[in-house]
Amino acid sequence: MEKLYLGKGQFPPDFFEGAAARILHLQRPDGAIPWFDGGVVDPWNHVEAAMGLSILGHRDAAIKAYDWLIDNQLADGSWWGELGAAVPIDLETGVFKAEGPKDETPVRDSNFCAYIAVGVWHHYLVTGDGGFLARMWPAVSAAMGFVLSLQSEHGEIRWAAWDSRDADDALLTGSSSIYKSLECAIRIARALNEPQDAWVRARALLGNALRHKPHRFDRTWESKERYSMDWYYPVLSGALRGDAAFSRIASKWHIFVENGHGCRCVSDEPWVTVAETCELVLALITSGQPVRAMEMFSWVHKYRHDNGAYWMGYQIVENVPWPEEMPAWTAGAVLLAADALCGVTSASRLFIDVLDEDAAQQTKRFYHR
Question: What does the alpha-carbon distance between residue 97 and residue 329 come to, in Å, rounded to a whole number?
Fold first, then answer.
């Protein structure tokens, strides 16, 4: 299939069931959702896949995934994790190549740990299950406590808790994602009458850093601006809005977007990835460009396997899927973008409606009307 344009209110019958089936196939008996067959698990990609399950009604499997987070949370509120997906994959070992220190001590990534709040709020919006929200609250609260312990006085948040010089630095993509996670954590707290004014202040401080302090990121390593996520994540997270968001997307569209194919993972390789393309779709909707978002989403279905799952990416020069993996998080990203375009679930506006610090009561009425 070359293109698919979605309508409002419903998904094409059974079209996305293969994506959900891929996640269910990968989910382990303990609830963990690894990247792909034989792959590792990290909390961020685990949550992204769990949100896909919630969207298509696989609620028991989604709850099992969130229970896994509770069961594996460390005493300080964090989780052990792996480095992110935006680095080259080692096709011989089937794992991503880690950059940076070669210390074998596991990393606790602040962005990965914060993302539980996005998933928990998303599942609550889909289901309206207040009991689930209350049961997850201790894990969310502990996770945000860990994450905010890594925030500097300038607003940015260290990328990891690790005894290394590199741990003192911050990633623009990671901190942007945490900005969205903080928003969802604040929404959860308010829904449970657990006000967290410190989180509001921390989010405002982080937002100021994302908008006005680019020098606080990538201080000790080479800039990550070659990665497309550094380009669109400040928009996806809601840190940049209005004209600033529109200008940000316009500034590097010609660098990262391959017309008719999708969004490159990195600027210097002819490799488009489905997850990055779907996240850019969400960023386009968030920045007020729904028509462009719908057109871009129509491109990704050429990377859909016959079984309904989606390839991780595509090498557009050699015209082959690369790597030959169909990750769980890719399926999750596809479903999040589809829902944002179609408005099928009550969580479809998760990445579209951004919380203003001075509009708490208005936001609460919106989600509980």
Answer: 18
Q: How far apart are CA 310 and CA 338, in angstroms?
A: 13
Q: What pLDDT digit, counting tens, does each position of 273-303 carry?
A: 999 999 999 999 999 999 999 999 999 999 9
Q: What is the DSSP string of 133-172?
A: HHHHHHHHHHHHHHHHTTB-TTS-B-SEE-SSGGGG---H
324 three-class SS: coil
pTM of the model: 0.91
CB atoms inside a 10 Å sphere around CB 132: 17
Please determine, for residue 98, whether its predicted confidence score (pLDDT) is greater than 60: no
Could you give the 3-state DSSP secondary structure of residue 351?
A: coil
**Quick check: 363 pLDDT over 60?**
no
Helix or strand holding residue 271 (H, E): strand 271-273
- State which H helix or E strand residue 210 sits in: helix 197-212
The pairing of beta strand 160-161 with beta strand 89-90: unpaired
Which among 49, 25, 65, 116 has a CA at the least distance from the CA of 333?
Answer: 49
For the chain, list the domains and their CATH numbers: 17-367 (1.50.10.20)
Give 242-246 contacts, CB < 8 A, sequence gap 24+: 244/211, 245/283, 245/286, 245/287, 245/288, 246/287, 246/288, 246/289
* pLDDT value at residue 166: 63
So what's the pLDDT on residue 167?
Answer: 73
